[in-house]
């Protein structure tokens, strides 16, 4: 399909220069840029619609259920469990840590 559009000379020169630098044809560069912008607008519209359907209270209740876990170690567990004596901790994970001094509780 062919689309004819009027653009300011300064924009045309920018597109021409960018197409040359990126080793693309002008048509290909304009198609890529137009596609990216349409995708951005579509995503914005989708997120705005989802936000209208959402509930701040429900999202806060959901986040309150997430354990207090530090990122970075796949075997970290809730801090309150780490504070318990070993005898009353839940069973250790079934996947071995693979070294690094992991005791199965994200500690040393």
Q: Could you please describe the fold and organization of this structure?
A:
- This protein has 108 residues and is an all-alpha fold.
- It folds into two domains: 9-61; 67-108, no CATH class.
- Helices cover 50% and strands 0% of the residues.
- The protein contains four helices and no strands.
- It has helices at 9-21, 26-53, 56-64, 79-82.
- α1 (9-21) crosses α2.
- The longest helix is centred in the middle third of the chain and has 28 residues, at 26-53.
- The N and C termini lie far apart (63 Å).
- The model has no long low-confidence stretch (mean pLDDT 79).
Question: Keyphrases for this structure?
Answer:
elongated, 108 residues, single chain, mainly alpha, 50% helix, 2 domains
| Low-confidence spans | none
> Which whole number gives the mean pLDDT?
79
> How do the helices and strands follow one another from N- to C-terminus?
HHHH
- What class would the helix/strand composition place it in? mainly alpha
- Helix content percent band: 40-55%
